[in-house]
């Protein structure tokens, strides 16, 4: 998928400035950069939670021109194909783990209950949460809750999984359980777009690194060059140093 010359403003604040960015299928694109630089706005544009004022979006050959109204049908179709995972899990507190995962397949995909339960068990196994189907979110650790949130996204079989700082709320030992799941998904060539402040993990998982600053793309390319101590961009070298 690809964004071309995207612009987004809030009031008189120009938050995304003519951004052009490709998110190759089967790859992990990692967005890094200072707070407030526009990373979440880019991610949210990809599933149309944010609507840029101008620019184009190519989603698997389907073209959207942000200057034109986007129909609800198009929005729903793209949201279904882009599973979003948030920093704070956003699980339904009054539903069990299993029912959190089956909600989308039964309500949106109109899957029958038995089929949805089987699918839920499959994706919960994938994230190491198969034994927690009957548990409520309040009984889970942050790492467990986030893995359920990932399972919930996977249950929709999205083309892309979008993750906005999925481990920022977690202690390091709980973070590791989530990072392992993401590494496994990467091995399976699940297309992902990840925003993270964990530079060591970004280096490990990224096929491509994008550095965003002040609504602009400062770097878009290989992780090796980005993290190299020889990176000619001093601003990037300082950013990496400040984060590690
Ligand atoms: P990041 O994820 O890199 O921290 P964001 O994409 O969340 O950055 O935000 C980029 C800029 O847009 C920030 O200055 C932020 O304050 C502003 N912004 C984001 N969302 C809104 C909104 N809904 N209303 C007004 N300003 C917003
Ligand atoms: Mg953000």
Automatic annotation (TrEMBL):
PROSITE patterns: ABC_TRANSPORTER_1 (PS00211), ABC_TRANSPORTER_2 (PS50893). Residues 1-239 form the ABC transporter domain. One of its GO terms (cellular component) is plasma membrane. The keyword Membrane applies. Keywords: ATP-binding, Cell membrane, Membrane, Nucleotide-binding, Transport. It is a peripheral membrane protein. It holds the Pfam family ABC_tran. It is found in: Cell membrane. GO terms for molecular function: ABC-type amino acid transporter activity; ATP binding; ATP hydrolysis activity. It comes from the Bacteria. Its main location: membrane. This is Amino acid ABC transporter ATP-binding protein. It comes from Limosilactobacillus vaginalis. The lineage of its organism: Bacteria, Bacillati, Bacillota, Bacilli, Lactobacillales.
């Amino acid at each position: 998928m690809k964004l071309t010359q995207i612009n987004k403003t809030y009031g008189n604040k120009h938050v995304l400035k003519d951004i052009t960015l490709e998110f190759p299928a089967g790859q992990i694109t990692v967005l890094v950069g200072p707070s407030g630089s526009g990373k979440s706005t880019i991610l949210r544009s990809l599933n149309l939670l944010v609507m840029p004022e101008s620019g184009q979006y190519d989603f698997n050959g389907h073209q959207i021109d942000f200057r034109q109204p986007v129909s609800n049908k198009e929005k729903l179709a793209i949201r279904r194909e882009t599973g979003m995972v948030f920093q704070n899990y956003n699980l339904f507190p009054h539903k069990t783990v299993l029912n959190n995962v089956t909600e989308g397949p039964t309500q949106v995909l109109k899957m029958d209950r038995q089929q949805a339960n089987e699918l839920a068990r499959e994706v919960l196994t994938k994230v190491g949460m198969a034994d927690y189907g009957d548990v409520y979110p309040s009984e889970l650790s942050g790492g467990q809750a986030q893995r359920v949130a990932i399972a919930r996204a996977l249950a929709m079989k999205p083309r892309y999984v979008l993750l906005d700082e999925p481990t920022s709320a977690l202690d390091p030992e709980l973070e590791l359980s989530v990072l392992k799941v993401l590494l496994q998904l990467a091995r399976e060539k699940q297309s992902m777009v990840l925003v993270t402040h964990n530079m060591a993990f970004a280096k490990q998982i990224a096929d491509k690194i994008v550095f965003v600053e002040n609504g602009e793309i400062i770097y878009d390319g290989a992780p090796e060059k980005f993290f190299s101590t020889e990176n000619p961009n001093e601003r990037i070298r300082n950013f990496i140093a400040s984060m590690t």
